[in-house]
């Protein structure tokens, strides 16, 4: 099938979304294409923070340690590792993400700082009583 405006000044040849070159001169590898497609799907699944509610709880762990647990922010709607990085920096502690459980966990009791930081980003927050 020929394009509607083929051969006219209105004919804009299709360009690659990823490298910006003309399709005929695209330099992307199949792997790059697939990675870019995955990234676009991820971005499309993201939700703005103000449409999400984080539930924050402080939980006791073995040996008397405490952990601050953030639930309700899904791994598809958010970049959990990026979020973890911001929370770790704000709280000055270490932590981990559990994407399969849509969960972020920080070492120690940082419920207040977590609440403040998440609210600054724009998330709705509520304490989760256990
Ligand atoms: Zn390309």
């Amino acid at each position: 099938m020929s394009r509607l405006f083929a051969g006219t000044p209105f004919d804009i040849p299709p360009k690659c979304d990823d490298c910006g070159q003309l399709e005929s001169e695209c330099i992307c590898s199949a792997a790059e294409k697939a990675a870019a497609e995955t990234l676009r799907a991820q971005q499309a699944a993201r939700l703005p923070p103000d449409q999400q509610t984080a539930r924050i709880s402080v939980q006791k762990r073995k040996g008397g340690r405490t952990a601050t647990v953030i639930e309700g922010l899904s791994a598809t709607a958010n970049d959990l590792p990026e979020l973890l990085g911001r929370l770790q920096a704000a709280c000055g502690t270490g932590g981990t993400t559990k994407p399969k459980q849509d969960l972020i966990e920080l070492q120690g009791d940082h419920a207040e700082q977590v609440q403040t930081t998440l609210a600054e980003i724009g998330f709705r927050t509520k304490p989760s009583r256990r």
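Residues 14-45 form one domain. The longest strand covers residues 53-60.
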